[in-house]
What does this fold into?
Amino acid sequence: MGIFYDADFSEANMVGIYNMTILEKRERVENLWKWVIALKSGKYKHIKDSIRTCEGYDCCGVACEIFKEEGDEWAIEDGELDYIFVPKGLTVGHCFGLPQKILDKLGLSPKDEQFIMEINDKSDDFDEVAKSIIHYYVKPIEMSIGVFNMQREMI
It folds into this structure.
């Protein structure tokens, strides 16, 4: 049984879709699919309650890893066990959750990030997270531009 939520959430997400150009929608869908494919790849071990530890990643940690750019890094504060993703030009003290540049690549708001993190922390693996990203984010955009990605059939 899945963790899908009866959310007014997907309706709230649709509002942002209407304000996007087709090019922006296609780019967002492409980035969301990259994230879903990475989550399903088996390359990343699923964890809860932290973006990254020596044990693995949560779904947002995977997003940081796949969209990491030159100069971005993972850091550990003294005495801590959790890694913090530090985008180029920022310091550890200014970094919490997904950086704005990754939220922008995925077309997500902080509310979206929180919603996805809750699904991650209630799931035993990345399958439910990937399905939720497709259901609440990919599918509505694809429908709005008349595109159906066959990758969905494989996941």
Residues 9-154 form one domain. Residues 56 and 112 are 22 Å apart (CA to CA). The longest strand covers residues 73-76.
